[in-house]
């Protein structure tokens, strides 16, 4: 059996022990959804490519200590990607602010700092809520939201009914909307 057919858990364990083939397989398996997440956050292809690379470099360094919960490595990679994206956005904002400060004397941007704090807190809350989902719900979330699978394709991949995917995803989205609303109220 080739590495392509191994589970993320098996590949993660081997990659954590330094197996380059296992890590390359994980990379190929998850590079597209990680790129999409990065692009959705930063909005430029070049920054999304850099963030994707930074995500996998960070993952390589941290794999040895990782204890994978669930079947997919993608939620962990998505969390790293979100942090890398937030760092990139902060860096871009700092550069922009420095340039603006040089061109126009004193310009305070406190709203942006507040938005960053709120955005980071919201991202942590959402990631925490996704981690608390059942294994099947996390897989549905990853397939349909992160990887863009249609309900039918996700159902076939998971071996469950199309309606089950649709209903569970509706409940997941409602649950995550509640987290967003709760964060907006606080």
Can you characterise this structure?
- The chain folds into 2 domains: 1-107, Rna Polymerase Sigma Factor, Chain: A, CATH 1.10.1740.10; 109-186, Arc Repressor Mutant, subunit A, CATH 1.10.10.10.
- The protein is built from 8 helices and no strands.
- It is an all-alpha fold.
- The longest helix has 30 residues, at 74-103.
- The protein has helices spanning 8-16, 20-42, 45-62, 74-103, 110-131, 135-146, 151-158, 162-185.
- Helix content is 78%, strand content 0%.
Quick structural gist:
By secondary structure, the chain is an all-alpha fold.
Biggest sheet layout: none
Rg over CA atoms: 19 Å
CATH homologous superfamily classification of the largest domain: RNA polymerase sigma factor, region 2, helix turn helix motif
N-to-C SSE series?
HHHHHHHH
Average pLDDT number: 84
Give the strand content: under 5%
- Counted by DSSP, the helix tally is 8
Structural class: mainly alpha
Q: What name is given to the CATH topology of the largest domain?
A: Rna Polymerase Sigma Factor, Chain: A
CATH class of the largest domain: Mainly Alpha
Shape: globular
The quaternary structure here is single chain
Span of the ends, CA to CA:
51 Å
Assign a percent range to the helix content. over 70%
């Amino acid at each position: 059996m080739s590495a392509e057919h191994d589970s993320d858990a098996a590949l993660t364990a081997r990659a954590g022990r330094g197996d380059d083939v296992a890590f390359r397989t994980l990379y190929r398996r998850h590079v597209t959804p990680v790129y999409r997440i990065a692009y959705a956050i930063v909005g430029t292809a070049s920054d999304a490519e850099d963030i994707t690379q930074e995500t996998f470099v960070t993952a390589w360094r941290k794999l040895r200590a990782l204890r994978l919960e669930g079947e997919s490595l993608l939620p962990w990679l998505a969390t790293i990607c979100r942090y890398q994206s937030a760092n990139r956005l902060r860096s871009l904002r700092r550069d922009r602010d420095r340039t603006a400060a040089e061109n126009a004397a004193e310009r305070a941007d406190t709203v942006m700092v507040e938005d960053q704090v709120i955005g980071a807190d919201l991202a942590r809350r959402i990631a925490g809520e996704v981690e608390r989902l059942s294994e099947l719900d996390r897989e549905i979330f990853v397939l349909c939201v992160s990887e863009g699978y249609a309900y039918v394709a996700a159902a076939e991949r998971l071996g469950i009914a199309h309606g089950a995917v649709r209903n569970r995803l509706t409940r997941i989205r409602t649950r995550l909307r509640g987290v967003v609303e709760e964060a907006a109220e606080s």
